[in-house]
Specification:
The chain has 191 residues and is mainly α. Helices cover 73% and strands 0% of the residues.
Length: 191
């Protein structure tokens, strides 16, 4: 028999997959219940409604991502080494939490996000924004709008992960190193 914690985890896992693949509006509580192999009423024991469920999920994965990015961050190292750290942590986050990166990207400006979710996402973006701003200040990153530079890095990485998930690309160390180098080359200041 499943424990309460396991059922809650199953609900969150199913919700993550369905929200990532179908989106919030196209995902229903009965769909999540069926996928998690629980009754719809069980979901309501843990979450008041679908909005509470999606916000709980969103905040959980934003905090996991923030923790990964901050853990061991080489603040005293070069901008390039900091970039390497951030890129590798994005890879690790994606490897450990299938669907989570795409879920966060597709739901980060959604109408149903509550204040806590919005604050959490702002903190996540501030890590990337601060990195880019420091790199620009040190003249190691191009003098382009910060959000454009983040889009170049994050957008490229997100598309790479989509190609890997769809089976169009096979994850290999050489591929990841090449993509990291290409992303860095795209944003670094060229003398």
């Amino acid at each position: 028999m499943k424990t309460a914690t396991t059922k809650r985890d199953d609900i969150l896992d199913s919700a993550l997959t369905l929200f990532a693949e179908r989106g919030y509006d196209a995902t229903t509580i009965p769909m999540i219940a069926k996928d998690a192999n629980v009754g719809a009423g069980t979901i309501y024991r843990y979450f008041d409604n679908k909005e509470v469920l999606v916000n709980t999920l969103f905040q959980q994965y934003v905090h996991v991502f923030i923790t990964m990015l901050k853990e061991g961050y080489p603040a005293d190292k070069s901008i390039r080494e900091q970039f390497h750290h951030l890129f590798q942590r994005m890879v690790r986050f994606t490897n450990e939490h299938d669907h989570a990166l795409y879920f966060l990207k597709t739901h980060n400006a959604a109408y149903f996000l509550d204040e806590r979710s919005e604050e959490a996402f702002t903190e996540l973006w501030s890590i990337l924004r601060d990195f880019v701003e420091e790199g620009k200040k040190a003249k190691e990153i191009r003098d382009l709008p910060t959000m454009a530079l983040i889009a170049i890095i994050f957008g490229s990485f997100l598309e790479l992960q989509q190609l890997i998930r769809s089976g169009d690309l096979k994850v290999e160390e050489a591929l990841l190193c090449g993509v990291e180098d290409s992303c860095w080359d795209a944003v670094r200041h060229h003398s």
